[in-house]
Specification:
The protein is an all-alpha fold and 146 residues long. The chain contains five helices and no strands.
Length: 146
């Protein structure tokens, strides 16, 4: 005789376990796939997607390696993070910027151009959203985009 299946049968063990339950396939990834980030691993396991050869994430395969620091940048900012942003802008939209670490009018204009092209908030500053898009676009195999 079959027992009726209820949602409570799944919920009760999850509540008592004290964690979040995630359903994932039980198969393992091929040995040839090398993970460069935990987020990519989770996404691949959850969606079953095949990883691209070049992940769009900072790391050893990143096209720009001035720094991993991602502060909010605006005109007047300077330092390695600005060099990183200028490098990303050069790869993402072929901005033609000198990677000098000074966020001047040319970098601000290139930032606004990139933001328009990416269809994100156009404010000329490089915050979390712009960094995210810059990292992805600059490291994409078919860059530049605009």
């Amino acid at each position: 005789m079959r027992r009726p299946f209820t949602a409570a049968a799944l919920v009760v063990p999850i509540i008592f376990a004290g964690g979040t339950a995630v359903a994932a396939p039980q198969s393992s990834l091929p040995a040839s796939v090398k993970m460069t980030s935990k987020a990519a691993m989770v996404d691949t396991v959850m969606t079953g997607a095949v990883l691209p050869e070049k992940l769009a994430a900072p790391g050893p395969n990143d096209v720009c390696n001035y720094t991993d620091f991602r502060p909010t940048l605006r005109q007047g900012s300077s330092g390695n993070a600005v060099e990183q942003a200028q490098c990303y802008l050069n790869y993402a939209i072929n901005a033609g910027l000198d990677e000098d670490g000074d966020f001047g009018p040319a970098t601000a204009a290139a930032t606004r151009e990139f933001q328009r092209c990416a269809e994100i908030v156009v404010d000329g500053r490089i915050g979390a959203q712009t960094w995210s898009f810059l990292v992805f676009w600059a490291n994409a195999a078919d860059a530049p985009f605009c």
